[in-house]
């Protein structure tokens, strides 16, 4: 009795749901404005961890002789960046968990936080030299992987193409840069020991190719400014030197003149490359942030505009005829068999019908434009799945699995993503 | 100063985000429990409108001589079903708009409500015979189309495969039944006039094929009970009679013995078929409802279980070592190049790490299982898009466009959805 409102709810009107649809877009953009605060923190933390990984590697490789201070300084820097990340996360915690958007994103944040909780123990092992350089590298890489995956999942939840595009560019430059970091570590190991074993050489090839694939996808989604920066990186003199050293690493066996000269040169060049990639990454992040703000402003104005329009229709409404709906054959676009012609004539003035149709068209267009970003993310998921399948079925390593996949694609003259898709679709049969 | 909580937010823990991930799943299922209340209302309202459309058709076809009362009674029945739909919508209005999930779904509800607002005017035109039978049919069909599209959009927002599957089955049986209703109307026009024009005959062929395609997709996603019901429909004696009349309709020209006998027989058989399909639809709806309740119960228990586990880990936690994370190469699955081996040993007991990994695996598996439902919906969107493109480029009718598409598929020996996809991907070039 006290809840008259609950007992007899108002009958909802088309205009209410049009406003709700616009409001939903706005809320989603607000969510990305918040999420967006995490992205630069993750980017910087990953960069810090990559540097700490490099220093730890050298420290362990030298049996604790060199890079004692450097490692210490860089690990303190990582702690500062980690605190910034956790602070940003704490500040948007309510937003992320109050209106949760994606179970996968939240679980990926849990993975990243859990990995970070193990960082102290990893460092104790490094300092006490209870761990090999290789294992330490793997643990750092795993932590970095979990952090980048947070950005991947964020990109995967975006429904607005102007948000999804920059995020896809972001996740691919981050991954490309991470492959570059791993390539630096593997190359350092080879050059400083004076020879590349078959396994090391193959790993170099894999990291180089994987990096190029990521950066190719990145360049498909990057804004003009970031793309120009990236092209500067590609055109830099350093690149031909890197290419020369890469070729050396592919010829298995000992060098004529090992020394530590090549190792130093390699480390220096690749560090420059990584820093240059970080600047491209910062540019992409800036573009993503600007897109979020711009789209949010647009959506807020559009909502206000619609509310004004609808209010004006309401006051005129009493005198106008109810309108019969003519079916735009694409409208709703999804079900049944809409008619292409006929029906009863449309009102000539602007009506709720026009506004709803306009929103339908906009949402459909946004969905179409989102398609390529979605496909890039799907391709990546499918390739990872195919690699995992190959590893399990044939009991081979990750590198080996990537190589098998690439060979399949080459032999069949198909795209890597198509081969991966075919493999995954055959998985049930192969079991 | 008064907002100490805001100023120094707690640093979030992995366990918090694991719980948040589970809570997000639960909220999504709760949303579908609410949305699910709309589905039977839409199903019944569509059925009511299909019957009203049929009666209006006969009424207009007889120049207002017959079905005067029948039409009136059925339109009152539709009003009752419409009130039920609007009541259900009003009851979940808060849920739908407070935590909005999909702009497209909300806008589709706006389209449906707006179409319903035009129903009164349509009926006045029918009663006053100011509209042709053909135009009235088209307007009713358009309204029905908007209502079914609401279920389509609901299916498109589902992230849980046990929810998405039944919704995909639902939307396809609804569409199949609607094609059947349209076929009844077109066939009635042909049989009662004693001849099928070329256009009418082609329309019959299109509606029959479109119907079969929908019911094929339906049968891929239907539960065992609904599938058995559907197979009963297929095996019924009535079907061979319907097949015979369909063949007649495909031979353009006059019949030897027109009369109204064939028309009556056709109308009766198809009405029986539609009613039988409605019973299959009810069964699918029941299965969808049961899935929602079951999954919601499971998810609630799982969340409670995790909370208990995490609490017990917290109390033990003080004594256990922090765990270094070993990277399962599929973990996160999406970014970077996870390592397949090495790393530091895992804790043997159950840890937050295990729980997070378990959730990662579950979410990945759910996503994989969702794939086929997603593809079925995508195929449908792509086909509609291809049809719209053909209509616009070649200025042909909806039927004609469907026929062109089918012919392309047949000539190239490809699936309809593949041909549609190829066409849509070429659209930019064709502009």
Would you identify the CATH architecture of the largest domain in chain A? Up-down Bundle
Total domain count of chain A: 3
The most extensive interface between chains reads: A-B, 113 and 113 residues
Strand content of chain A: under 5%
Which structural class do the helices and strands of chain A define? Answer: mainly alpha
Q: Gap between N and C termini of chain A, in Å?
A: 61 Å
The low-confidence runs of chain A, each spanning 5 or more residues with pLDDT under 50, are 1-7, 318-326, 328-349
At CATH level 3, the topology of the largest domain in chain A is: Four Helix Bundle (Hemerythrin (Met), subunit A)
The CATH class of the largest domain in chain A, by name, is Mainly Alpha
- Number of DSSP helical runs of chain A: 15
**Inertia-based shape of chain A:** globular
**How is the main sheet of chain A built?**
2 strands, antiparallel
Radius of gyration of chain A: 27 Å
Q: What spatial order of strands do you see in the largest sheet of chain A?
A: 1-2
| Average pLDDT of chain A | 86
- Binned, the helix content of chain A reads over 70%
Pattern of helices and strands of chain A: HHHHHHHHEHHHEHHHH
Your description of this structure?
Two copies of one chain form a homodimer. The first copy, chain A, is mostly helical and 431 residues long. Chain A has three domains: 32-157; 161-309, Four Helix Bundle (Hemerythrin (Met), subunit A); 345-426, Arc Repressor Mutant, subunit A, CATH 1.10.10.10. Chain A is built from 15 helices and two strands. Chain A has helices at 4-7, 14-35, 38-61, 68-98, 103-117, 119-127, 133-157, 161-193, 198-221, 224-235, 238-250, 261-317, 352-394, 398-412, 416-430, and strands at residues 195-196, 253-254. Chain A has a two-stranded antiparallel sheet. In chain A, helix 14 (398-412) packs across helix 15 (416-430). The longest helix of chain A is centred in the C-terminal third of the chain and has 57 residues, at 261-317. Chain A is globular, with a radius of gyration of 27 Å. Chain A starts with a helix and ends with a helix. Mean pLDDT of chain A is 86; it is low at 1-7, 318-326 and 328-349. The interface between A and B is large, with 113 and 113 residues.
């Amino acid at each position: 009795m006290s809840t008259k409102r609950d007992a007899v709810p108002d009958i909802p009107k088309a205009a209410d749901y049009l406003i709700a649809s616009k409001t939903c877009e706005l809320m989603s953009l607000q969510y990305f404005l918040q999420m967006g605060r995490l992205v630069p923190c993750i980017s910087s933390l990953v960069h810090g961890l990559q540097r700490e990984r490099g220093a730890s590697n050298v420290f362990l490789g030298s049996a604790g002789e060199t890079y004692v201070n450097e490692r210490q300084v860089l690990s303190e820097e990582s702690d500062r960046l980690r605190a910034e990340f956790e602070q940003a996360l704490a500040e948007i915690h309510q937003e992320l968990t109050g209106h949760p958007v994606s179970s996968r994103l939240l679980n990926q944040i849990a993975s990243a936080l859990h990995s970070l909780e193990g960082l102290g123990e990893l460092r104790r092992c490094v300092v006490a030299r209870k761990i090999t350089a290789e294992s330490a590298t793997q643990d750092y890489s795993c932590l970095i992987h979990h952090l980048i995956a947070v950005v991947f999942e964020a990109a995967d939840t975006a429904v607005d193409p102007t948000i999804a595009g920059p995020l896809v560019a972001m996740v691919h430059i981050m991954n490309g840069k991470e492959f570059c970091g791993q390539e630096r570590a593997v190359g350092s190991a080879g050059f400083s020991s004076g020879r590349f074993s078959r396994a090391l050489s193959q790993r170099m090839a894999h990291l180089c190719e994987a990096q190029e694939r990521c950066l190719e996808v990145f360049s498909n989604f990057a804004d003009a400014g970031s793309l120009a920066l990236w092209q500067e990186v590609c055109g830099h003199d350093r690149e031909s030197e890197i290419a020369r050293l890469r070729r050396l690493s592919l010829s298995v066996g000992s060098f004529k003149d090992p020394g530590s000269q090549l190792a130093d040169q390699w480390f220096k060049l690749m560090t420059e490359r990584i820093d240059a990639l970080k600047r491209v990454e910062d540019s992409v992040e800036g573009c993503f942030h600007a897109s979020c703000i711009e789209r949010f402003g647009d959506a807020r104005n559009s909502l206000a505009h619609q509310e004004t329009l609808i209010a004006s229709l309401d006051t005129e409404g009493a005198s106008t005829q109810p309108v019969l709906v003519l079916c735009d054959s694409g409208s709703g676009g999804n079900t049944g068999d809409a008619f292409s012609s006929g029906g009863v004539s449309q009102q000539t003035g602007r009506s709720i019908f026009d506004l709803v149709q306009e929103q339908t068209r906009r949402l459909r267009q946004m969905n179409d434009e989102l398609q390529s970003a979605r496909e890039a993310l799907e391709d990546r998921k499918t390739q990872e799945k195919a690699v995992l399948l190959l590893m399990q079925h044939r009991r081979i390593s990750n590198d080996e699995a990537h190589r098998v996949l690439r060979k399949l694609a080459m032999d069949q003259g198909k795209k890597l993503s198509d081969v991966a898709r075919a493999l995954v679709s055959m998985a049930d049969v192969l079991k």
